[in-house]
Give the backbone structure.
Amino acid sequence: MKKFIITLVICIGVLGVRASYLPSSLTLRMWDNSIISVVLDGQVYDQYNTSYTFANVAGGSHSLKVYRYYTGHNGVVSGFPKMVFNGYINVAGGKSVSSMITADCRYIVLSEYSMVPDNGNHYGNGHHGGPHNYSGPHNNYNEPYNYPNCPSPNYGPTCMSEYDFAALKSVVANTSFDDSKLSICKQAIAANNVTTNQVCELMRLLTFESGKLELAKFAYSYVIDKNRYYLVNNEFTFSSSIDDLNRYISSY
């Protein structure tokens, strides 16, 4: 029995190591789909595309530089490129990875799908591969792909996708004034359903209590999980704001 367990542990370890070094596919774009060129592991890719897909990328760490280009009214690239990312990224082995450079110059993994054969004859069925690794040159942390209480289209309204929400947060975070941030949030929320958690995250990007309260009131009609909306109370500093929001919801 002991020999069997040791053999099983060794086999699992070998399979895990093999999976981590399987080739992956990496797709990369800017948050606003602007034109970019890429230097991956020292190799230059300068086709001036809005998106690049790299096949047979080995699992593990890779050096990455991304340059953003600006276009004139006629769509022609003009001026010198700006480096928007310079660091190391980690690519999971055996995955089809979709990634993005955010407005604040971070590398974000949007989705990972397994490319590992599930029965020896064909690749996996495309189910999501698990938590997403958000990384920059010196940081890594995990965050679930789906926001809580965002049902599938077959069971009710869907919320703003993670890709769109990440882009929205980047735009808001890089906007200087609270009034402008609030306008951007309202514009995006009015065109999409959102979750309570997403509203909380947007409120944290605002500086003043009055703006947070206005956003919480505005977003309420677009929230798909109103039964959890009490969580936004944690984002307020003053109890008077909570009372004001509760009165608004009671009269809604």
